[in-house]
TrEMBL record, chain A:
Gene3D superfamilies reported for this sequence: 3.30.420.40
Keyword Cytoplasm: yes
Sequence similarity: Belongs to the KAE1 / TsaD family. TsaB subfamily.
Swiss-Prot/TrEMBL GO biological process terms: tRNA threonylcarbamoyladenosine modification
Any one GO MF annotation of this record: transferase activity
Keyword ATP-binding: no
Protein known as: tRNA threonylcarbamoyladenosine biosynthesis protein TsaB
Residue intervals of the Gcp-like domain: 34-158
TrEMBL record, chain B:
Family annotation (SUPFAM superfamilies): Actin-like ATPase domain
Entry protein name: tRNA N6-adenosine threonylcarbamoyltransferase
Family designation: Belongs to the KAE1 / TsaD family.
Keyword set includes Magnesium: no
A GO CC annotation given for this chain: cytoplasm
Broad EC category: transferase
Organism: Natronospirillum operosum
EC number(s) from the headed UniProt entry: 2.3.1.234
Alphabetical GO biological process terms: tRNA threonylcarbamoyladenosine modification
Catalytic activity, reaction form: L-threonylcarbamoyladenylate + adenosine(37) in tRNA = N(6)-L-threonylcarbamoyladenosine(37) in tRNA + AMP + H(+)
Residues holding substrate: 134-138, 167, 180, 274
Subcellular location: Cytoplasm
Length: 228, 347
């Protein structure tokens, strides 16, 4: 009986889910801006209480490790590091883009190709492409990237699905493609973790190995140290 | 009670275990000074990123050094301000999560209360009440301390903090960041009284400070010297600057002791590492028939031990916070209350 705690804080949404082998148990989320530090742990506590579970009964904790809002990613990663370290649980570190792709597959399984685009602010997107086949599963076909929207190669065809808030940026909205401008949520984190476990692809890690993936690494300008 | 303390308000990740019966069991620090040096100052985003990398290994290290297993921790204390929000967030979220998963109480610690209580970690700790001089990169304050959480502001800097003045002056003299300690080292080679700068505000009543005028005076003095500055010129200017700062701090501390009638002065924060300051304050206090207490040099700058200690005092008194983590970029020390249920959570 695989019990999982899943959470996502990588965008303006903040969500937590509890998952058991046969499906979702309980779930909560908030869209209140800048409330992640205040809302995340009380949500975890109250969901565990609702389900009557303790952390030590879990098989592990799954969370999105980015890309996403820098601060948001760190709220989730820091919380999971602490919870997993103290409860001595392994961690499943998942790409936010992969989780969104899986969120798309859940709603439109007929789409065999997926393009995920998250809003990366500063006029850029975090993005990746995927192939989906019920027999072989979901596979990322490009690296996770930080791009100007006009550098994104649009896939054509009736079986292409597009998901993520990046598609709502003016340059991409102008393409007229049909899209689902969804934010990631913890239910999909749990569902994707479950999919990976089912295919024996889950890469459990000790908590300190859970580290953010930002994609945007140019965050400061170097200048002479002193005397300049 | 064994308390794990976590500090991540700026550019040091500090973790420690304090035992209310046995004292400090272990402490570990990762300083990001090298990381930020090439930018000439702390880059908040880089600081936050590094805290996430360092924190758990440091927790592991302090538990191992204390000979404790993960189940032996009875409480968790973490800094929730003042400081860089993104940096605070890392330590506070991890700390609160550890407490939640261990099922032990957690407490939110004011960074400056940590500094203020750091001398309590020594073998001969000061006793309440006392006057505290907090001198760091961000603060210069004189505080009347009646008891834990009972703080009254006597005076503060109207502009730059003393540590900031040290750092800016050091930069002016071409010293590498962060220049305070470098400037103090250089001053040891200086010729006394070649440069005499007026100690700011000592001719005015009250216990406030101001250091920006002094910085300007130093700049003007440097501008009159032949360039490039010789090593001796720089040392002489450094000594002149340090002497003026120390004099200003000494005069206001004496006033604070006289105004409150307290005999005990506690000096904390990064600048309390300064040897010239310690010598001057010791002399002054002796004349006032008082005594000065300092933190160990390791606990003058940011560290986890002072957070573990301050948190332990509040936990002992029954204070704890729920799992909603609230952070404060700015948070006057005088807003603190004596220990109580859910104090430290106020917005
Ligand atoms: N020996 C010293 N003499 C003067 N200033 C010093 C000395 N050692 C450290 N400092 C100063 O202390 C400050 C750092 O102290 P810290 O308590 O970590 O401050 P904050 O947390 O406010 O940045 C810096 O401004 C540094 O230059």
């Amino acid at each position: 009986m695989t019990r999982l705690l899943a959470l996502d804080t990588t965008t303006e949404a903040c969500s937590v889910a509890l998952w058991e082998a046969d499906g979702l148990v309980v779930y909560d989320h908030t869209l209140e801006p800048r409330s992640h530090t205040r809302r995340l742990l009380p949500m975890v506590e109250s969901l565990l209480a609702q389900a009557g579970w303790s952390l030590t009964q879990l098989a592990g904790i799954a969370c999105t490790r980015g890309p996403g809002s820098f601060t948001g990613v760190r709220v989730g990663v820091s919380a999971v590091q602490g919870l997993a370290y103290a409860a001595e649980l392994p961690v499943l570190s998942l790409s936010t883009l992969d989780v969104l792709a899986w969120q798309g597959v859940q709603t439109q399984p007929e789409c065999r190709h997926w393009q995920v685009a998250m809003d990366a602010r500063m006029g850029e997107i975090y993005c990746a492409d995927y192939d989906w086949d019920p027999a072989t599963g979901l596979h990322r076909t490009t690296p996770e990237q930080l791009l100007k929207p006009d550098r994104l190669t649009l896939l054509a065809g009736p079986d292409v699905g597009r998901i993520g808030a990046g598609w709502a940026l003016p340059e991409l909205a102008a393409t007229g493609a049909s899209v689902d401008a969804a934010l990631p949520h913890a239910r999909s984190v749990a569902a994707w973790a479950h999919e990976l476990l089912g295919r024996d692809l889950a890469d459990w890690q000790p908590p300190h190995q859970l580290q953010p993936v930002y994609l945007r690494d140019q965050v400061a300008d170097r200048r002479p140290a002193a005397g300049g | 009670m064994r308390v794990l303390g976590i500090e991540s308000s700026c550019d040091e990740t500090g973790v420690a275990v304090y035992d209310t019966e046995r004292g400090l069991l272990s402490h570990a620090l990762f300083s990001q000074v090298k990381l930020h040096a090439e930018y000439g100052g702390v880059v908040p985003e880089l600081a936050s990123r590094d805290h996430v990398r360092r924190l758990l290994p440091l927790v592991d290290q302090v538990l191992a050094e204390a000979g404790l297993s993960r189940q032996d921790v009875d409480g968790v204390a973490y800094t929730t301000g003042p400081g860089l929000l993104g940096a605070l967030m890392v330590g506070a979220m991890a700390g609160r999560s550890l407490a939640l998963a261990w099922g032990v109480p957690a407490v939110a610690v004011h960074h400056m209360e940590g500094h203020l209580l750091a001398p309590m970690l020594e073998a001969e700790p000061p006793a309440f009440p006392f006057v505290a001089l907090l001198v760091s990169g961000g603060h210069t304050q004189l505080i009347k301390v009646e008891a834990l959480g009972r703080y009254e502001l006597l005076g503060e800097s109207l502009d730059d903090a003393a540590g900031e003045a040290f750092d800016k002056t050091a930069k002016l003299l071409g010293l590498p960041y962060p220049g305070g300690p470098e400037l103090a080292r250089l001053a040891e080679q200086g010729v006394p009284e070649r440069f005499v700068f007026t100690a700011p505000m000592i001719d005015r009543p009250g216990m406030d400070f101001s250091f920006s005028g002094l910085k300007t005076a130093v700049r003007q003095a440097v501008a009159r010297l032949p360039t490039p500055l010789s090593e001796q010129d720089r040392a002489d200017v450094a000594l002149g600057f340090q002497t003026a700062v120390v004099r200003a701090l000494e005069v206001k501390c004496r006033r604070a002791l006289q105004a409150t009638g307290h005999r005990t002065l506690v000096v904390a924060g990064g600048v309390s590492a300064n040897t010239a300051l310690r010598a001057a304050l010791d002399r002054m206090a002796a004349k006032e028939r008082g005594r000065v207490y300092y933190p160990d040099l390791r606990f003058c700058t940011d560290n986890g031990a002072m957070i573990a200690y301050a948190g332990a005092q509040r936990l002992l008194a029954g204070e704890q916070v729920d799992s909603a983590v609230t952070l404060h970029a700015r948070w006057p020390l005088t807003d603190l209350q004596p220990p109580g249920q859910s104090a430290g959570q106020a917005a």
